[in-house]
Amino acid sequence: MDIKELTERMNQLVNHHGWYDPDSPKAQLPRNLAISLCLEAAEVLEHFQWTENPRDPNQFADELADVALYLLQIASVSGIDLESVILRKIEKNWDRVWVEDPQDTEQPL
Fold this sequence. Notes:
Layout: H1 3-16, H2 30-46, H3 57-78, H4 82-94
Helix pairs in contact: 1-3, 2-3
């Protein structure tokens, strides 16, 4: 299944629950979805609080899926072709060299 098919399945789920309805109390607006994305990302971090590895790999995987679903939905409602912008960003960063901060010994992605 590719990213477009995943996006369609996500949209089917949202429609199934009525969240795209104009009178839905869970308005699927980019702002609301961005907030939800951040909250789900924090739940990913929670799995590493005080430990090097997630305590429950299945719950950790579910949180990663939640983050991915919100990202797909934000792109969808914003009219962004996430697949093409991801590929463009990879190309843009392919030969990029990050200047190392003398204070920082870690290299970013």
